[in-house]
Specification:
Elements (H helix, E strand, L loop, with lengths): L2 H4 L10 E3 L5 E5 L5 E4 L3 E12 L2 H6 L11 E12 L5 E15 L3 E5 L3 E6 L4 H4 L4 E15 L4 E4 L6 E3 L4 E4 L4 E7 L13 E7 L3 E4 L6 H5 L3
Antiparallel strand pairs: 1-2, 2-5, 3-5, 3-7, 4-5, 6-9, 6-12, 7-9, 8-9, 10-15, 11-14, 12-15, 13-14
């Protein structure tokens, strides 16, 4: 291999899911251990891998995504190495050990097909934002990959004070956290990039919130429908 390119060669496989650099996901696929991934996220693969866009099981669970505020999924099956990416976004890999996580639909890249999952509307936000916010709740024993517009921060909500997040910067959170919307008239010129009154999501309880360093709502709009 040309010496300047040698440093970019794939590393030996050490896990079911792992990063190749900050912006690409590598998945080791094996027969019987299928993957659900964002449609259009495949950038390369080795071996024998088959793809089924929007399989019946996904259509049944994710029927609410017809609103366009979601991430159409494809089933990936077979044996080989699969590489996924999402327009150069950072990729975050999580190994669930019986826990759960709620993921903003536009930040969901891939997850093990055997995990328990479902699509839910986040309550209490429509009256603040003028629209709903959908999340995908995933739980069980397996792997999940998220995307972030830049290097994310993980905030621990274990204290007494609530944690406030711009909805357009939200990536994921612990499903056991309490969530509510909050208006902030005085902060409307400081938070987010939209016009009108500012609003945030307030989290309380024991758990974490993952926040990306981008609050541009056009990121969400670009992935709709």
């Amino acid at each position: 291999m040309n010496q300047p390119l040698a440093g970019f060669a794939p590393a030996p496989v050490t896990a079911r899911m792992e990063n190749h650099g900050n912006h690409m996901l590598k998945v080791a696929l094996q027969t019987g251990n299928d993957l659900l991934a964002r449609v259009g996220s495949m950038v390369a693969y080795e071996g024998f891998i088959q793809y089924e866009p929007n399989p019946p099981a996904v259509r049944q669970i994710a029927r609410d995504w017809v609103t366009g505020e979601g991430a159409p999924l494809m089933k990936c099956s077979g044996d080989g190495l699969l590489y996924l990416a999402d327009y150069g976004a950072d990729v975050v890999v999580i190994n669930l050990d019986g826990e759960g996580i709620s993921v903003n639909a536009t930040n969901l890249l891939a997850f093990d097909a055997h995990l328990t999952w479902g699509v839910e509307r986040v309550k209490g936000l429509a009256k603040f934002a003028g629209q709903g916010l959908w999340n995908t709740k995933i739980s069980g024993q397996g792997w999940v990959a998220l995307t972030s517009r830049g290097k994310p921060i993980v905030v621990d909500c274990g204290g007494e004070d609530e944690t406030y997040v711009d909805p357009d910067a939200l990536v994921a959170w612990s499903p056991n956290l309490k969530v509510k919307g909050k208006r902030s008239f005085k902060a409307q010129s400081l938070i987010g990039r939209g016009s009108g009154e500012a609003y945030q999501m307030a989290f309380s309880g024991q758990g974490i919130v993952v926040v990306q360093p981008s609050e541009d709502s056009t990121d969400r709009l670009r992935f709709r429908g």
